[in-house]
Design goal:
alpha/beta, Chitobiase, domain 2, TIM Barrel, 2 domains, eight-stranded parallel β-barrel, seven-stranded mixed sheet, 15 helices, globular, binds ligand NGO
């Protein structure tokens, strides 16, 4: 294990166990092969993914062989069902002559590849050929995640992000073993996914953005492509349609969804909490049934997020009635529901995931929804705004972002424990963690990158790494080594003064 004063690697999230071996480093050369000993196409796809990555910066051919023949020097990927590594765990052994990656599943192999990348020099992340040497220190890693849910939320409603931009975001976050992409697909300012039965949602509701900026929406083909691209990186897409509030774009598109039968204009401001679907009208539930059905059809993941936050324009009793009606709709279409913490005010089905976002801690009043969720036997995904909201400014000088939950610098993103934040919420109640990037103040992907890095790696480490050994001093030295990796990938990151960048 890396001690406090002796960091010999810069891997983030910190592996459960990583030890130096008494051997010379492995060096990639023009002769290096990758051997996919693991049976099955998925493991071979992981090998191909690694090969493509290595070819880019080294310029070496890095051929991939299937089967057990073992040309030397080689990087070997193998599936080993006997090891108790869990679905995402892996072992990685680096010696002078070989690199071995073993996991129970191809998903575990993919996580191992992310570790391997980070053991190589930063220039391996370049998109053009660089000169080596391409050495990997001789280490032995045994790793598995603390929590199964390590999400990244992206608000594509307030600002629309193109297919290419979403793919880049996936590519950047999956390096930190993020395994969920939560797409906030609808809000007051924009509806971003085609629903065939309600076409104006996208064509009208998706035609604008915050500040009146250009809108956009995903066709079902686009969405399927995001799902496919994410799945190839072992990231599950969780789509969110926010209800019953944050529904301005839908209300603007269809007058019949409004209680008074009249559509408001498209909203381009940044206020929250003023819109609501009409809880009394039957057509509201026909609408939701169509939306949930069509979204379920193109979403292989288990969860659909139905929002539920800040429904200040919905009376309390109406809110509970609304969730009572929503519950069977989600079940009918074969999915489980996820919702923001407010949803725990209502009765929820077993298996529903509740997403905590309040900055409240201990037994402060703001923690009550979390306890209500736990009392219902439900698990929480933790996104406390003062640690995990990537739209908060780093400090007073940050040119974009909000500050209602305070400033969140690199240390705040790393220095917290999801199982110790709230009285009555322990390890067994936590499904995992998720960063949230709301985009009211974010103009484009460059801004999004600036707010994501260097904070997301801290949240990812909170979600993946063992509780023991969680030290800011050790972490910030490892984090510093990621600056050059982001430079190589042309990531627009924030040079936090808390981090000793090289
Ligand atoms: C809140 C609100 C969002 C805002 C965000 C800004 C939740 C769950 N609802 O978080 O609509 O965009 O704050 O920080």
């Amino acid at each position: 294990m890396a001690g406090l004063t002796e960091t010999h690697h810069a891997v983030i999230p910190r592996p459960a166990s990583i030890e130096k071996r008494g051997d010379a480093p492995f060096a990639l050369t023009p002769d290096t092969h990758i051997v996919a000993a693991a049976a099955g196409e998925e493991a071979t796809a992981v090998a191909d993914h690694l090969a493509a990555l290595l070819r880019r910066a080294t310029g070496y051919p890095v051929p991939v062989h299937r089967g057990t023949a073992r040309p030397r020097p080689a990087i070997l990927l193998a599936l080993d069902s006997h090891r108790r590594l869990g679905a995402e765990g892996y072992r990685l052994q680096v010696a002078r002559n070989s690199v071995q990656l073993e996991a129970k599943t191809s998903e575990g192999l993919f996580r191992a590849v992310q570790t391997l990348r980070q053991l190589l020099p930063a220039t391996v992340e370049s998109t053009s050929t660089q000169s080596g040497p391409w050495t990997i220190p001789a280490v032995s890693v045994a790793d598995r995640p603390r929590f199964g849910w390590r999400g990244a939320h992206l608000d594509v409603s307030r600002r629309f992000f193109s297919l290419a931009e979403v793919k880049r975001y996936i590519d950047l976050v999956c390096q930190y073993k993020i395994n969920v992409l939560h797409l906030h697909l609808s809000d007051d300012q924009g509806w971003r996914i085609v629903v065939d039965r309600w076409p104006r949602l996208a064509t009208h509701g998706g035609s604008s953005a915050v500040g009146g900026g250009p809108g956009g929406y995903y066709t079902k083909l686009d969405y399927r492509e995001i799902v496919r691209y994410a799945a190839a990186r072992y990231v599950t897409v969780v789509p969110e349609i926010d209800t019953p509030g944050h529904t301005g774009a839908a209300l603007a598109s269809y007058p019949e969804l409004n209680c008074d039968g009249r559509s408001p204009p498209l909203y381009t401001g940044v206020d929250v909490g003023f819109s609501s679907l009409c809880v009394e009208k039957e057509i509201t539930y026909e609408f939701l049934d169509d939306v949930v059905r069509e979204l379920a059809e193109i979403t292989p993941g288990r969860y659909l997020h139905l929002g539920g936050d800040e429904a200040r324009a919905t009376a309390d009793a109406d809110y509970v009635r609304f969730i009572d009606r929503l519950r069977p709709i989600v079940r009918r279409h074969g999915k489980r529901m996820m919702g923001w913490e407010e949803m725990a005010r209502a009765r929820l089905a077993p298996g529903t995931l509740v997403q905590y976002w309040s900055p409240a801690t201990g037994s402060e009043p703001g923690t009550a929804p979390a306890r209500r969720a736990v009392e219902q036997g439900l698990k929480l995904v933790m996104s406390p705004a003062n640690h995990a909201y990537l739209d908060m400014k780093y400090d007073r000088g940050t040119p974009v972002g909000l500050s209602w939950a305070g400033y969140v610098d690199a240390r705040d993103a790393h220095d917290w424990d999801p199982a110790e934040l709230i009285d009555g919420v322990g390890e067994k109640d936590v499904a995992g963690v998720e960063s949230a990037l709301w985009t009211e103040t974010i103009a484009d992907l460059k801004d999004a990158e600036f707010m994501t890095f260097p904070r997301l790696p801290g949240i990812a480490e909170v979600g993946w790494s063992p509780r023991a050994g969680h030290h800011w001093e050790d972490y910030r030295r490892r984090l510093a080594a990621h600056g050059p990796r982001w430079e190589a990938q042309r990531v627009n990151f924030y040079r936090s003064a808390q981090v000793p960048w090289p």
